[in-house]
Amino acid sequence: MRQVGFIRSKNELKFLILYYAERLMEPVSYEVMHELTTCDPAIDRFEFIECMNFLVSTEHLSCSKNELYAITRKGVENGRACAHEIPYSVRLRAEKLAEEQNRRLKRARQVRSKVEPLKNGTLGVSLRFSDDDDVPLWEMMLAVPDEAKAKDLTARFQESPEKMYTQLIGVLFPPENK
Length: 178
Hints:
This protein is an alpha+beta fold. The chain folds into two domains: 99 residues, Arc Repressor Mutant, subunit A (Orthogonal Bundle); 55 residues, no CATH class. The chain is built from seven helices and six strands; from the N terminus they run αβααββααβββαα. The chain has a three-stranded antiparallel sheet with strand order 1-3-2. Helix 1 packs across helix 4.
């Protein structure tokens, strides 16, 4: 039995997918697109799959080798022409969810960490904190003895790089004693 919601047809679902895709700052995975689009309880997973496949096959969306979906020029044009078909309350919710997703995408671009094995048997943890233009504010590589320490370090860095940056600057440029 179909749940009650505002999206009532496959066309409205296609328009909603295009609405999201246009508002996202970069291509996203199928899972992210599904999570965003299911803001309406009436959206069925199988209909979603069918609509995504249709939009890719008609070149409204592109799908990269990494299976990231992005809107095409054709998708932008047709999506804008049909956006008024999406119920207003769903558009408002979609705007909010797209903004939240864009914040997560931006954060992931600004705060990066990577773990790689070093020649001496330890692990190297690369930490990078960048500004909005992807200019590094600081980059650092630390050697750690094992995978548990590497995971802990990357988790702490992902959680609060700003705090670490501020503390590092405080150590490098201590306040002058007056």
